Amino acid sequence: MDVSNLRPEYNVYKAVYALAHALDNLHRCEPGTGPFPGRSCATLHTLEPWQNIQFSTSFGDEVSFDKNGNVLPIYDIMNWKWRPNGQINIQNIGDVKISMVKEDLAIYDRKIFWNFESKKPPQSVCSENCPAGTRMARQRGQPVCCFDCILCSEGTISNSTDSTECSMCPEDFWSSPGRDQCVPKKTEFLSYHEPLGICLTTASLLGAFICAVVLGIFTYYRSTPLVRANNSEMSFLLLVSLKLCFLCSLLFIGRPRLWTCQLRHAAFGISFVLCVSCILVKTMVVLAVFKASKPGGGATLKWFGALQQRVTVFALTCIQAVICIIWLVTASPTPHKNTAYHNDKIVFECVVGSSACFILLLSYIGFLAFLSFMLAFLARNLPDNFNEAKLITFSMLIFCAVWVAFVPAYVNSPGKYADAVEVFAILASSFGLLVALFGPKCYIILLRPERNTKKNILNQNINKQTRSLTH
Known about the structure:
Elements: H1 7-28, E1 55-56, E2 62-63, E3 74-82, E4 88-98, E5 103-107, E6 134-138, E7 147-151, E8 156-157, E9 167-168, E10 173-175, E11 182-184, E12 186-188, H2 195-220, H3 225-229, H4 232-248, H5 258-292, H6 306-330, E13 334-338, E14 345-351, H7 355-378, H8 388-411, H9 416-447, H10 454-470
Parallel strand pairs: 12-14
Antiparallel strand pairs: 1-2, 3-4, 4-5, 6-7, 8-9, 10-11, 13-14
Helix pairs in contact: 2-4, 2-9, 4-5, 4-9, 5-6, 5-7, 6-7, 7-8, 8-9
């Protein structure tokens, strides 16, 4: 039978077993191997309280004695339970076990009988427990047990009930909607996987592909009068630089890295200066050829030969390269985790490092573009074989308009949208130059080949010159 529920009987049971264990240990002890001083054994005539005994009952209870010989108690926690017939049943719902090293308290909640209508334990406070994600705020003028549960503010959490305060999340984490745990902050940058990034990437690759197609067309028809009359070498170099302009926009898409931050503006600046330099040289050659066609102007062409054109483009591009090198050496652009735009997001962006170098880079491109525009505008009414000046004027007008609009849009765009604005400006200006400069020529080469003859071009020149002299 389960004698553990019979308290007096159980004590007698433990007393008998304590005596039995003591006698057994006494009987088994051999002189010289005992547990007492001098390795002696106890005797019935010299027993002392400190000569302790310790054993476990078959019910798992430990029986031991303190230094005074008193047994270490086990307290039962009892519960009075009403039976349907009106009688009272005393039930053990827990115990307190005291040993030499610790005290164990065990309560079995499911066995407890609460003598209330709800059959639930009474409320010890006037407010419910505050769940995780909230903190306790004491109600003014009320007892200490009365409080309100206030949701933790953004960026703070409480992960236990009845918290008195909320704790801050680490720097790269933010509170969950329930304010009960810290979760990693969302990251934001112009990604290849989002619709905006996909559109810009597609436009960039499309522009580079069109440049390659146009370059193939001009290479195939390089011996035709139209291609030869429009400075074919500079046209080829211009198409290559436009292709680089399209491709450099890809450096602005994706998570910023140190090498992409350093390369993106350098590649952008050098590619566009190479492009605008080619346009500027083409414009200067148009003016020089027209001036050489007049009496006494033949000496002008010697300053605009093929070698001089290459040197001019190379020199103008080298100036931009020097600006980029100084920028990278003195204050290189670096990736940065910006948390100023959004509290719950980390915006990855490239810090330009030196605003002065960035402004100087853009200003140099703008200066060359404006100079090309002014020269092309002056040459816009030249005869037909030189009428590329009209196309250059229109293309430079588009180019300047795009980049003038870019500056305020870039300054007022936060995070990834600043990169998107810059990529859009690169693509818009590149497409403007590509379509304005090479669209009409490809139209004539592919769809109107009868106009791509030396006789037709010369006839148009004569007619244009005649009308020009008449006016």
